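It would be a great kindness if you could assist me with a short task in structural biology. The matter concerns a single protein, recorded as an amino acid sequence and a row of backbone structure tokens. Kindly check, if you would, that the fold set down in the tokens agrees with what the sequence suggests. Thank you for your consideration; the sequence and its tokens are set out here:
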Amino acid sequence: MTIPQMVSAAIGTGVLGGSLYSFFRHNTRRFKALFWGAIGAAMVYAGFRPTFIEILGPDSTELRIRLIVALLSFIVLTVTLEAIRISRMQERYGFLWLATGLLLLAGALFPDLAHAVEALTGIGYGVAVLVVIFAFILLMLFHFSVALSLTQLKLGQIARELALAEERVRRLESNHVAPDRPVELIR
């Protein structure tokens, strides 16, 4: 057994154990537990039976990159969908994550598509993955810059409205003479 196989088996065992614990301990997290359980089982199986990987094609650097990209994109898709489902992420923010995850997953699962892009652009698969990731990062930075700008505009508008409201309260308090007895609140 080689060192990468031992690492895969060890990490897979940890992931599988954690997912089984989560599956039986938390009723609301069963989908995530099943997902991580499948990943852990695949890692353990691939660690002890490397011929399992060779079903996907001859062992090469490109195949290993494709497997890692497929796993990472699957994780991104699952985590994004789960965050949207439990309302931790708004749909408009999750769209870019979903689109990038689907693009990377399609490139990893369909090597003919990746080879067509390679023939069209003249860049290898690994470099194409880096280009997609770099484009994703740039799009995310642009998206967050726009969102931050809109938030700052709204914050400035709220600050102006608050200043006007405070000025109105000051004018009303200066024009109004305080009564001799405290005002009773209407219930």
Summary: The chain has two domains: 1-57, 60-169.
